[in-house]
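Assemble and predict.
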Amino acid sequence: MMALELQNVQRAYNGRIVLDIPSLRIEHGGRVALVGPNGSGKTTLLTIAAMLMRPDRGDVLVNGERVRWRFPEEHRPYVAFMAQEPFFFRGSLLKNMSFALEGSVLSRKARAERIRKQLSMLGVHDLAGRSPRTFSSGERKRAAIARALLREAPILLLDEPFSHIDATSAAVLEDVIGNLPRDRTLVFSTHDLSLAWRIADTVIALQNGRVAPCTPENLFRMVAHVTADGSELRSPGGIAIYYPERLEEGLSYWVMVNAREVLVTREPIESSARNNFRGAIRAIERAGANTVLLTADCRPDLPIRALLTERAIRDLSLNVGGEIWVHFKSTAVHAQAGM
Amino acid sequence: MKTNPILTGLLALLTALYGAACAAPHPQRTESTETGQSQRAETVTIRLATTTSVDNSGLLGHLLPRFTEETGIGVDVIAVGTGRALELARAGNVDIILVHDPEAEEKFVSEGYGAERRYVARNEFVIVGPESDPAEVHAMNSAQEAFSNIMGAQARFISRGDNSGTHMRELSIWNSMGVTPQGEWYVEAGQGMGAVLTMADEMRAYTLTDTGTFYAMADNLDLVVLFSSDPILDNIYSIILLNPVIRPNLKHAEAMKLADWITGPEAIEMINGFEVNGHRLFRVE
Amino acid sequence: MLQAIVDAFALLFSLDSEVLKLIGTSFSVSVRSAAIAALIGFPCGIWFGLSEFRGRAAVDVILNTLLFLPTVVVGHIVYMMLTRDAPLGDYRLLFTRTAIVIGQVILATPIVLTMVSNSVRLADPRIVSTALSLGAGRLRAYLALLGEIRGLVLLSVLAAFGRVISEVGVSMMVGGNIYGKTRTITTGIALLTSQGEFARATALGMVLLILVFAINLAVYFATHRARS
């Protein structure tokens, strides 16, 4: 049974489709990051998953049960949501926190204790008596997270928790969110790919309301030139990536290369991959459990990223600065005009 | 939420006012199984529609409490114009009426709405005006002559203009002369007698008024009685019982008791003895 | 004018039983009317404020028109509803305080409705969804919405109360101005006026003004104290 599932979910706004998800499944205890540019549907997806908006089509399943849109209250105890711009009721932070615990079976003392604990965890306990409307944006985000966490709901949906936030608050948030107990399911959206990979096990990219073919670790703007059996996508510096389809000559394209399909070798190899480049390792970063994001600067101007297992890094003794070859088939390339 | 003292005070004030209002004399509408002599508390209430002039004279305020004391029947007085009173009776919204428009009353009975008409009292209309009396009303021998003079002199005259008994009487006088009064001098006020008298006082104009309202206000007015004692100005007050066949759900038994009482010896004495500012306002003959 | 004000205070504080009866009747009726108007207007106002449907603009126009209903017209309508031959006639409600309340509720409800719905539309659109996301039930979420706009909500009740406590048309037509039962301050003033007792009528009018002023003052302090 999935913690959260979307089936054939569609939502349109002013005649334009803003979300189109045939299937999305999130397991219990999962850590999922949603990435994508503004307008890609991240907020819509989270809002629908939080049962605060009804899709035009499709179903949302919480704990395997289909949400009846007339009675979403049944599932609310299991889902907590934090909006990108959190709203606070008038009154103190304490009052706002108490609101979340109304109707709870806890005694007054227990509630007060839980509130105190949560506020301290987010470092906003000494702000409890003030109105959150007077807080800085970082304090507000921390307060909102504290409020969202208060009910200890098993599924936590956070919309851009790390946006518009100062460094201290970001650090606190990353700490709290990263250390959530494993029995909670977390889905959050962000612009920051590295952050996504640091915290999440799974990164899903959204593009124009749909799940993108791959996450945008490799995103380049290149010009197409038609060839005998497809196209060549050229960077300003002259690097060419082979693409199996015929594109429009001279037109600019957004090009994505699936980082999971990039092969890394110490020596050049002969293979079916048509794209092979040589470069120096610029960075090796952690990306979730057991995964590592490797960035190689392929001369002259293409920084290719590959998602590798930790083991692979060790086996190949890869280090920053070392020379490597990257390979990927033309099927790992996705081109889109004027995205 | 912290309790706000002023808000609490305000709520307390409103609650207190509301409580006082509910505690205000508000007779129950239930029938009581108790019978017996003088009860102070009302057990049944009937509705009497009457004219504003009757109400303003204070006669009912003088009579009705005694009736209630003796019978335990309360009387709610709804004071409107004659026309409206008759309409209320036709619609079945009141149990009994007391009016003073014989023509309309006869029609009311012949139409079947009124079951029985009983004479209660009489007084008269008088023509009042400024002491200077520019139209020489005081020297006239009949109401018609007086009116004719006023019209001829184009002296200002305030008419009730509201289809009340007084207004109807005034119009009948004009009609009997075959004239329709109009012009700047003829002011149709559309107001109650008291307001019209005040207006006439201000404008030093003539008007037709019942003695009751006039004498109650006479001290504050500069107007004087200039013409009276013409049979055409007699004002007969009758109480009319309503037809139980057409309107079976009214309180006919209690209404009958009122009609009996108000035409009975005790009431007659009280009516004859009712004075305002030294003037007897009603006579029972 | 000044004399009238002095007379008014004298009248008020003399605790003249006649005047007290009028005050009692007026308040008993109008407080009830405003309360019922609130009971109807709050949920309808919230629903209408949150709803989006074709023709909502048309309903807006109709509601706004109802704000200007002449009181005598409403009095007529209620009279027609309560007269003996009408369907509701059997309840003998005509010439009772209840009849006045019915008419005043018709006057007051559009005020509460339009003000609440407009306040809802102007309120932060995130209120209800935030409440829901924190586990509130729908009713609790709407209450939270009311709480956030409570200043305007209170104002709507005050405006409704003001409208009904100063009206004459309904009270006179369906109340009958019966002494001790349905004679309100305003019908009392009308009666005094028709009797030509302008000075006393003005004094009574001042009494009403003073009472209403006191209420508004108290509410002002209540709401502004809360802010600091």
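The mean pLDDT of chain B is 85.
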